[in-house]
């Protein structure tokens, strides 16, 4: 005997109360979820507002190439008279300038970079170097490369059709070799390897 062929039982006297109770239960659950989501939004909003970024530095994209810190002749690696190593770079669709960056091993290196067109970013090999480059903002961080060697430096923010072909190289020189090249203060470029 097939039970689906039986006529449906007529609604009993208590069935309306049962369905109203079920509806109400669902309404309470949905209301609780909405309240929870609103509380999460309020909490994350207040949390962000109470911990703004430690520093925000802006730069004008329109004049980036013609004046100021990020003109092409100022990009690359320099060592200041105070012995501080500074790398300046620009990301654009679809390359980094410069294409190859020289840094010393065992010394703090400060990177300053920005982007001209879209959001880019980079990581350097297996080091802790990892940052986004956003048009109009200067990204700054300092790191120390533990040993000499060569790393790939790919763009790691999707920036368009050429994204996967966008990368540079980082040459980490032994400290003494770097210092002998850096004396004089001019910009350093990669040595063929
Ligand atoms: Cu530049 Cu992805």
Ligands in the structure?
dinuclear copper ion
Q: Give the tally of β-strands.
A: 10
Order of helices and strands: HEEEEEEEEEEH
Query: How many distinct helices?
Result: 2
Query: Structural class given helices, strands, pairing?
Result: alpha+beta
User: Which radius of gyration do the C-alpha atoms yield?
Assistant: 29 Å
Major sheet characteristics: 5 strands, mixed
Helix content class: 10-25%
Stretches where pLDDT is under 50 for at least 5 consecutive residues are none
Measured between the Cα atoms of the first and last residue, the distance is 85 Å
> What would the principal axes of the Cα set say about the shape?
elongated
Residue share in β-strands = 25-35%
Structure description:
This protein is α+β, with helices and mostly antiparallel strands and 193 residues long. Helices cover 23% and strands 28% of the residues. It is built from two helices and ten strands; from the N terminus they run H-E-E-E-E-E-E-E-E-E-E-H. The strands form three sheets. Strands 1, 2, 3, 5 and 8 form a five-stranded mixed β-sheet that branches. It has a three-stranded mixed β-sheet with strand order 4-10-9, covered by helices on one side. Strands 6-7 form a two-stranded antiparallel sheet. The longest helix is centred in the N-terminal third of the chain and has 36 residues. It is elongated. The site of dinuclear copper ion has 9 residues, from loops.
